[in-house]
Amino acid sequence: MQYENWLQSGSSSGKILHQPPLEGTVRTDCLVIGGGITGLHAALRLVNSGRKVVLLEKNTCGSSSSGKSAGFLTPESEEDFQKLIQRYGAEKAKIIYESPLQGVHLILRNIQEHNLNCDLRKQDSLYFSNKSSHNEIIEDEAETREENGLGYELLDEDQLTEVHPGKGYLMGLRYSGSYGINSFLYCQEMKRMLSEKGVKIYEDSEVNTLTRNTAQTHLGSVSAENILICIDKMKSEFNEELSKKHYHIQTYVAVSEPLSDDEMKGMFPKGELMCWDTRWDFLHYRPVEGNRIIIGGSSPWTGYLPYYKYSPKVIVSFINKLKKAFPIIEDVDFNYYWAGMLDVTKDLVPIVDYDTSNKSIQYAIGCAGLNWAAYCGDYMAGRVVDPQGTKDLSEFLGAGRKFWVSESIQRILGKRISFFLNHAYELLK
Questions:
Q1: What end-to-end distance do the CA atoms of the chain give, in Å?
Q2: Closest listed residue to residue 178, CA positions, set 97, 128, 108, 278
Q3: Are residues 231 and 363 in the same domain?
Q4: What is the CA radius of gyration of the chain?
Q5: Which pLDDT tens digit goes with each residue over 307-318?
Q6: How far apart are CA 422 and CA 419, in angstroms?
Q7: Are 314 and 368 members of one domain?
């Protein structure tokens, strides 16, 4: 396998329109820092309100976490709905659940209204167990969805085999409202559309310093009345306090060579699905353009590493598991793989908050999932253009919320161990 992000190099050849770097001094109404899905959606809400907008991206739009995703656009948070109820109670859990659902709607509306070319595919979600001891997880989630009026179909082993005949799959939960996209192409198409709307986008323009309401890059500076910061892997030099509040999970993604129609039908006999299982290091996969399969997963041994581990060992193990489940693709090669650092918070719910010393500056960090990223960008822009009409979610998204592993304990244990313990606690609750 070749280490290369196929979403960028293989599926989008010739479709990237690079924007020049910032040079000189610019003044504007609103500055967005970061050209991932969060920043792009923030810029869209702002420009649609009539604001003059500048967006700065250190590489090219979608080149970081947003454009390395397997493209799962699902109507839920990173956490199961049942876990959200355990944490917040039923009424508040619905608020959290509906926020990323709005993110799905935002992305779909953009694609449809602006004819964005990003391999949009309607694919029902299929959440399944491959251990009998995990069947209870599926049953509990089905019960929670039933109690809260959320659509679903609970599948026993025979019913599951009819729609997804892999070996070793025991019970499944299927529901609609989910889609697949090429996340890198979506960012590129958003960049094109925003440029046409008048947003000034500068790539290769990393912000080195932020002083009051002026951002300085290597070749220029931007001053703005409002600044929305939507970057991942935030360094302490940029914001020391917030840099302590983001963590990461390292994931791996690979894409196959084209499958034959018979091979694809052998995996998905009754239509395309996006699939993942109940294990901690969950395997996830779905069909993508060109009759290919994209597959991803993580590992407890590499997931919390503070640096990229480029070895294909982890993703190869997931590919082998998929081939064992579906012998029909035993001879299919997976040509490309890549690693990604998924920014998260301790409880996997994003942080969107104001700078403690300057309310004209907002930060969004840990927006794990395409749906959360879109929602958070729109939410923070909404607090600029319509503060009275934007519901205050600081109880859930505020930087000052409490976690099981406190800041004082983290100072002793360090970020990596603190996140692991807090994450493990949330999983075991």
A1: 39
A2: 108
A3: yes
A4: 21
A5: 788 889 999 999
A6: 5
A7: no
Proportion of the chain in helix, strand, coil states, percent, rounded to 5? 35, 25, 40
pLDDT of the residue at 327: 96
Residue 282: how many other CB atoms lie within 10 Å: 14
Residue 147 · residue 91 · CB < 8 Å: no
Extract the tokens encoding 204.
Answer: 């290769």
Amino acid at 367: C
Measure the CA–CA gap between 127 and 120, rounded to whole angstroms.
20
Rounded to two decimals, the pTM is 0.92
Say if residue 228 is in the same domain as residue 206.
yes
With tokens 């951002």, the residue in question is 215
What DSSP element (H or E) covers 286? strand 284-288
Mean pLDDT over the full length of the chain: 89
Domain housing 388: 13-69+183-246+347-398
How is residue 32 annotated by DSSP?
E
Q: What is the pLDDT of residue 415?
A: 65
| Pair 359, 242 in one domain | yes
Within its chain, how far is the Cα of 393 from the centroid?
Answer: 20
Number of domains present in the structure of the chain? 2
Q: Indicate the range of 32-36, 242-246, 273-277, 413-417 predicted with least confidence.
A: 413-417
Tokens standing for 396? Answer: 């859930």
Question: Using an 8 Å Cβ cutoff, are 129 and 138 in contact?
Answer: yes
pLDDT score at 49: 97
Looking at residues 385-398, what average pLDDT do you find? 92
CA dihedral 382, 80, 410, 398 (to 10 degrees): 20
CA-to-CA dists, residue 188 to 12, 40, 120, 129, 287, angstroms? 10, 10, 14, 36, 21
Q: 274 and 175 in one domain?
A: yes
Type and span of the H or E element at 141: helix 135-147
Measured in whole angstroms, the distance separating CA 82 from the mean position of its chain's CA atoms is: 20
Which residues, 6+ apart, have CB-to-CB distance to 289 below 8 Å? 11, 119, 182
Positive or negative, the CA dihedral 308, 284, 71, 330 is positive
- Rounded distance between C-alpha atoms, residue 193 and residue 196, angstroms: 5
Q: What are phi and psi of 89, to 5 degrees?
A: 90, 160
**Exposed/middle/buried for 381, CB within 10 Å: 0-12, 13-18, 19+?**
buried
- Give 347-376 pLDDT, tens digit per residue: 788 999 999 889 999 999 999 889 999 999
